[in-house]
Amino acid sequence: MGAYKYVSELWRKKQSDVMRFLQRVRCWEYRQQPSIVRLVRPTRPDKTRRLGYKAKQVIDSRLFSVPF
Q1: Euclidean distance between CA atoms 31 and 16, whole angstroms
Q2: What is the model's pTM?
Q3: Can you tell me the distance from the alpha carbon of 11 to that of 5, in angstroms, rounded to the nearest whole number?
Q4: pLDDT in tens, 7-36
Q5: For a designed S-S bond to 7, which of 28, 46, 64, 65 qualifies (C-beta 3.0 to 4.6 A apart)?
Q6: Whole-angstrom Cα distance, residue 11 to residue 8?
Q7: How many whole angstroms separate alpha carbon 26 and alpha carbon 37?
Q8: For residues 20 and 14, what is the distance between their CA atoms, to the nearest angstrom?
Q9: What are the distances in angstroms from CA 44 to CA 10, 34, 67, 68?
Q10: Which residues on neighbouring strands pair with residue 62, listed in sequence order?
């Protein structure tokens, strides 16, 4: 199996220990950042590749946090 299959398997099994840890770490990391952040790479590379994402200079991704 390729790397994208392993990553997509993780996203399908959201209750696994690895995914829970990854989500907890990412959540903490996002809270430490400012409200608008430029992303270097997508957070879900398997899904973005499937939807047609190619790593180019033109594409710009941003992460927005909304206060509750």
Answers
A1: 23
A2: 0.58
A3: 10
A4: 888 888 888 898 899 889 988 988 888 888
A5: 46
A6: 5
A7: 14
A8: 7
A9: 11, 21, 23, 24
A10: 38
